[in-house]
Design a protein that fits this description.
The chain is mainly alpha-helical. The protein contains 5 helices and no strands.
Length: 123
């Protein structure tokens, strides 16, 4: 049996691919250069997170936890957009990921405020 190369398809497959192109359903894919820059940015943010941890005056300040949370959130967004390909997915998939994430973050923040009030009153 002769094996057909992967880039050649049956006439039905090629027709289906052409139909997707005609319908505007072609998805972009990041290049190696994009992944290189994303990895570099993630590395720099991680270095800053570790560096901040070793500054005693900053650890003692009220900005320490919010700074780490913001840097962590930025890294999360970058990983989701590029390595999970959410940036290149259909809008429906973005909505299915982003909607529940917003609900979860809102719930967690509300619970943090609620329990912070309870701790202050009882403490």
């Amino acid at each position: 049996m002769a094996h057909e190369p992967a880039h050649h398809g049956t006439p039905e497959t090629l027709a289906s691919a052409e139909a997707h192109v005609a319908a505007g359903e072609v998805h972009e894919h990041p290049t190696w250069g994009t992944y290189k820059w994303v990895a570099l940015i993630l590395t720099v943010i991680t270095i800053v997170e570790v560096w901040v941890y070793y500054i005693p005056a900053f650890v003692a300040s009220r900005l320490f936890v919010p700074a780490l949370l913001i840097m962590s959130a930025v890294k999360f967004v970058i990983v989701v957009l590029f390595y999970m390909h959410l940036k290149y997915d259909h809008k429906l998939f973005r909505a299915l990921f982003t909607g529940p994430l917003i609900i979860a973050v809102t719930t967690i923040v509300a619970l943090m405020f609620l329990f912070a009030k309870l701790v202050i009153r009882t403490g």
